[in-house]
Amino acid sequence: MQEKGQVKVNVGIDVLWRALAKDLKSILPTIVPKLVNEAEILEGDGGLGTVYLFKFGPDVPNMSYQKEKIVEFDESLHQIALQVIEGGRLNLGFTFYKACFQLTALGDSETLVDLKVDFAIECQETRAPPGETVKSGVAFIQALENFLLKQI
């Protein structure tokens, strides 16, 4: 299955790309500490093949951690995709979960973020309501935008 979402942010593409693709480990616990209270790189250098461990905070019920691997990384296209490889959503009935972020410059200080979530589930009861799989990704991008705007 696949769901898509889109959000426009008031941050330039280079700043947003650096935060999303290069500084994710340090920024994520800062911008959403009640969702992710710790992030670390288990393997890799932040590029293709990198494995992250995200430890969830008190606002994430039924999940304590999630391991994600960067399975797509194209700096020239400003595209990154992370696939859940252990824990988290895989413990909630998803058998596959991958989120892909595609950034497109709309000017010096605006970026369009297209989010595509590919997923598979064990049974229909597992499936979140339509749009729920992209909702958290869009909320994350908006939190990232707010954080970056305060830094500028």
Quick summary of this structure?
The protein has helices at residues 13-22, 24-31, 132-151, and strands at 2-9, 36-43, 51-56, 65-74, 79-87, 94-105, 111-121. 25% of the residues lie in helices and 42% in strands. The mean pLDDT is 91.
Topology, element by element:
Layout: E1 2-9, H1 13-22, H2 24-31, E2 36-43, E3 51-56, E4 65-74, E5 79-87, E6 94-105, E7 111-121, H3 132-151
Antiparallel strand pairs: 1-7, 2-3, 3-4, 4-5, 5-6, 6-7
Structure write-up:
The chain has 152 residues and is α+β, with helices and mostly antiparallel strands. The protein has a single domain (2-151), classed as START domain (Alpha-D-Glucose-1,6-Bisphosphate, Chain A, domain 4, 2-Layer Sandwich), CATH 3.30.530. The chain has three helices and seven strands; from the N terminus they run E-H-H-E-E-E-E-E-E-H. It has helices at residues 13-22, 24-31, 132-151, and strands at 2-9, 36-43, 51-56, 65-74, 79-87, 94-105, 111-121. Strands 1-7-6-5-4-3-2 form a seven-stranded antiparallel β-sheet. It is globular, with a radius of gyration of 15 Å. The mean pLDDT is 91. Belongs to the BetVI family. Residues 14-150 form the Bet v I/Major latex protein domain. InterPro entries: Bet_v_I/MLP (IPR000916), Plant_def-hormone_signal (IPR050279), START-like_dom_sf (IPR023393). Pfam families: Bet_v_1. This is Bet v I/Major latex protein domain-containing protein.
